[in-house]
Amino acid sequence: MFGLRLSAERRRLGLSQQQVADRLGVSRSAVGMLETDRAALEVERLLKLSEIDYDVLKVLTDEPARLAAGRLLDWQLVVDVVERVTAWEQARGLRLPSEKKALVIKHLYLRFAAQGVVDKQALDETLQMAA
Questions:
Q1: According to the model, what pLDDT value does residue 1 have?
Q2: Which segments of 1-131 does DSSP mark as H helices, in order?
Q3: What is the reported pLDDT for 18?
Q4: What SS3 class is residue 93?
Q5: Taking CA 35 as the corner, what is the angle to CA 34 and CA 41, rounded to the nearest 5 degrees?
Q6: In angstroms, how far is CA 20 from the centroid of its own chain?
Q7: Last residue of some domain: 47, 66, 85?
Q8: What's residue 66's pLDDT?
Q9: Domain limits for position 53
């Protein structure tokens, strides 16, 4: 099931089966068995593959990590952060440069993601520093 995707990832990275085997500490034939679904893909091996830049989410889901990660975002929180940053700018007659605004929004989203809500005081403090 995962074998074809493992093989595709290895080829995308320009690695031979032997190079992957060396990094995993297994034989080349063990890599071949993984790529043909004749051996189980263990979590430890998957973690080691991630260390050599395999897109593990692509291997597991057949969906690139960036796309899969986007599905995990709390989009309502993203919208809330963007709206509050924009309102903050407008209330002060300011306009942050787009690159800086994007970084601030990313920072704020990551700061608030665990709680799932915007902390107004933290938002104001962050924006004061960014302005």
A1: 78
A2: 3-12, 17-24, 28-35, 43-51, 56-61, 65-72, 75-92, 98-112, 120-130
A3: 97
A4: coil
A5: 35
A6: 23
A7: 66
A8: 82
A9: 3-66
Domain boundary residue, one of 39, 66, 93: 66
Cα 41 from Cα 104, distance rounded (Å): 39
Cβ atoms of 21 and 27 closer than 8 Å: yes
Residue the block writes with tokens 């679904």: 37
Residue 22 has, within 13 A of its CA and on its CB side, a CA count of: 5
DSSP string covering 46-80, please? HHHHHHTT--HHHHHHSS-HHHHHHHHS-HHHHHH
| Interior angle at CA 103, CA 101 and CA 108, nearest 5 | 95
Contact 64, 57 (CB under 8 A): yes
- Max CA-CA distance within the chain? 65
Please enumerate in sequence order all residues whose Cβ is within 8 A of that of 4, keeping only pairs 6 or more positions apart, or say none. Answer: 35
Shared-domain flag, residues 8 and 44: yes
Residues 113, 115, 118, CA angle at the centre, nearest 5°?
Answer: 75
Parts of the chain with a pLDDT under 50: none
Both structure tokens of 71 = 């599905």
